[in-house]
Amino acid sequence: xxxxxxxxxxxxxxxxxxxxxxxxxxxxxxxxxxxxxxxxxxxxxxxxxxxxxxxxxxxxxxxxxxxxxxxxxxxxxxxxxxxxxxxxxxxxxxxxxxxxxxxxxxxxxxxxxxxxxxxxxxxxxxxxxxxxxxxxxxxxxxxxxxxxxxxxxxxxxxxxxxxxxxxxxxxxxxxxxxxxxxxxxxxxxxxxxxxxxxxxxxxxxxxxxxxxxxxxxxxxxxxxxxxxxxxxxxxxxxxxxxxxxxxxxxxxxxxxxxxxxxxxxxxxxxxxxx
Length: 274
Description:
Blueprint: H1 3-7, H2 13-37, E1 44-48, H3 54-63, E2 67-72, H4 75-83, E3 92-96, E4 109-115, H5 124-134, E5 135-146, H6 153-166, H7 172-176, H8 183-192, E6 196-209, H9 212-219, H10 234-251, E7 256-257, E8 260-273
Parallel strand pairs: 1-2, 1-4, 2-3, 4-5
Antiparallel strand pairs: 5-8, 6-8, 7-8
């Protein structure tokens, strides 16, 4: 198999994200978030920045009955969400739209969930005010964001390698995943939107990939990092990817056993009420 074929994966970025990164990463965080939020049967639940729907599906399975709505601005992610087999629980309604201007009336939902999305919104305060608006009085909010990149060693190793081999600033998108790492800032944002009883729990998941090289391969195929290398000619691209893989593998050697990669990933989980 040619080196080019070894890193390329067949399918759209959203399909690859669902196939590889959801099982490895977001399913773990979804289970934690939904466990903490504890949606009840017959409640109305909104999953903001739902992506391919892992949180919405987890909530629906837990509820048994009620209403679950997924909202995302990314048409590719929603297309994958709609294509997946229906699981247990209520049918999920998928809506395309912005978290900054949600297409729902006031006081529509009992629970709003937002997994690993708030840090990406161009106006976080507006998004939180919208979450507040669509909740019923005493409604619940449960959201998560990644903490400092230093507490996710694989992300730090990849970001450093991107800057080293693609130039300063190449890791900006990767580092932005951790751009709301300050728990005090997070608290102020949530409370400033009107929420009360705000609590923040910092927790860790152990993330597994078959190898460090596979982690890099998936990051460069199924996330926005793909754009960093997709326009290169094949020879240059293969050399750059090999160099990034080498650096990341070296940096994560202490997290590899028998070739398998397992590293900690830390996030802040916020619970609050309207």
